[in-house]
Design brief:
The protein is of the alpha/beta class. It has four domains: about 80 residues, 434 Repressor (Amino-terminal Domain) (Orthogonal Bundle); about 160 residues, no CATH class; about 55 residues, no CATH class; about 80 residues, no CATH class. Helix content is about 50%, strand content about 10%. It contains 18 helices and seven strands. Strands 4-6-7-5 form a four-stranded mixed beta sheet, with helices on both faces. Strands 1-3-2 form a three-stranded mixed beta sheet. Helix 13 runs antiparallel to helix 14. The termini are far apart. The structure holds zinc ion. The site of zinc ion has 6 residues, from helix 5, helix 9 and helix 10. The site of zinc ion (ZN) has 6 residues, from helix 5, helix 9 and helix 10.
Length: about 400
């Protein structure tokens, strides 16, 4: 333990990891924060590396203010177990370390909040297949379909719900706008034994993109937890396509003349974007390279009246609603009641800032949880107003009919 005080002042014990977590979530550099709270940078680095440290009440107050985290947060023992999962692959190519840390801390926070909620409400155990070595991506997709009890000829209604029932924590997060072009989703592992997957989906993406990202990350979770040989991105893509639409069904339903319009019914029925269908069809040998290129060109060249290209907003963008995760919100409701305030949830799950809980849980909650103090419930991406939020009666009906089965 290190000590940061010389005189007789009130001493507070904090966890170094908690300071680092809060700083990374706020995307502040060590030097910036050190400056802000009036300590030297090496001192702050030392504090962050220490398991626990004694600091003066004054510095704790400064930290609390600069980071906008409740002061009690810093004295909650942290859960260290975390595995970067697919973020690791991403971080190597498209993300800076700061970006990766920022995203990882959010996912880690989701894991800790889940853990906290688990003490108040039951949660589904993780049920993902343990695949034998050498299983192909498409075989893995078939095994997962079986595990989800979905027949080959049956489209998956809500993949997010299926994933949640298999024990995966799914978060819809509006992460930093600078990352939007570089990242649609990522997954990682949390829990005492890093055995619980967290999938973070970028809110604001269209329903088909979100759904496909969910399938892709599920692929990473199933295929690449331990083995990372070969082209893992291609494998996760293949898994996603095969999971959402098995090849045999793709062949059965493929139109005689594949155009953007004749592919649209497949998009609607199977919930796969036109671009994913084009790739899927190409890999299955249903279209050749020139047909594939010509379809891509059409998507790129055609525009909506507002100037957006079809490639950015595909036809069929409004065919379905976005699949919203619900597991954490449901646990809040079961554990604390539907009208609980986020301050209560915060106190029970590690004193995370209420706003961060709002970011992570907002779309999963059926009503504002701040006791009417004016903070709006986050609208699902791309939609406005609370009408799109799952109503309590729907939720209850789901619970009654499905549970976490
Ligand atoms: Zn990936």
């Amino acid at each position: 333990m290190i000590t940061f005080i010389l005189e007789e002042v009130v001493v507070k014990t904090v966890y170094g990891r908690r300071v680092r977590q809060a700083r990374r979530i706020r995307r502040l550099s060590v030097s910036f924060l050190a400056d802000k709270i009036g300590v030297r940078q090496p001192r702050l680095s030392e504090l962050e590396r220490s398991y626990t440290a004694d600091i003066s009440e004054e510095i704790l107050t400064q930290l609390t203010k600069a980071l906008d985290f409740p002061s009690r947060f810093f004295s909650v023992e942290p859960q260290e177990a975390f595995h970067f999962g697919s973020l690791l692959f991403r971080a190597k190519s498209t993300l800076t370390d700061t970006d990766a840390d920022y995203l990882a801390e959010y996912a880690g926070a989701a894991g800790e909040i889940f853990q906290g909620l688990s003490e108040h409400a039951s949660s589904p155990p993780v049920r993902l297949p343990d695949l034998p070595h050498g299983v192909s991506a498409s075989e893995a997709a078939e095994i997962v379909r079986q595990q989800f009890s979905i027949k080959a000829e049956e489209p998956i209604d809500s993949l997010v719900r299926k994933a949640e029932r298999a024990g995966i924590i799914v978060i819809l997060l509006d992460f930093d706008v600078r990352l939007h072009d570089r990242l649609d989703a990522f997954s990682c592992w949390v829990g005492d034994y890093t055995d619980r997957p967290v999938v973070v989906l970028r809110s604001g993406a269209s329903w088909d993109r979100l759904r496909w990202s969910m399938a892709h990350e599920l692929g990473h979770a199933v295929l690449h937890r331990r083995q990372r040989e070969g082209d893992i991105e291609a494998a996760a893509n293949e898994f996603a396509n095969q999971l959402l639409l098995p090849r045999s069904m793709l062949i059965r339903d493929w139109p005689r003349t594949p155009t953007l319009m004749t592919l649209l019914p497949l998009k609607e029925n199977w919930g796969l974007s036109l671009q994913a269908l084009m790739e899927h069809g190409f890999r299955a040998g249903l279209i050749d390279e020139s047909r594939r290129m010509s379809l891509y060109k059409q998507l790129s060249n055609r525009k909506w009246p507002d100037g957006k290209r079809w490639r950015e907003r595909e036809p069929g963008y409004n065919l379905r609603d976005i699949e919203l995760p619900r597991m954490l919100g449901k646990m809040v409701e079961v554990g604390f009641g539907a009208s609980v305030g986020l301050d209560v949830v915060s106190a029970a799950t590690g004193h995370w800032p209420a706003l961060l809980l709002q970011q992570l849980l907002g779309v999963q909650l059926t009503r504002p949880t701040d006791g009417g103090r004016g903070r709006p419930v986050t609208s699902p991406p791309g939609k406005t107003g609370p009408s799109r939020i799952v109503s309590l009666s729907d939720w209850r009906r789901d619970e009654a009919s499905e549970g976490y089965g």
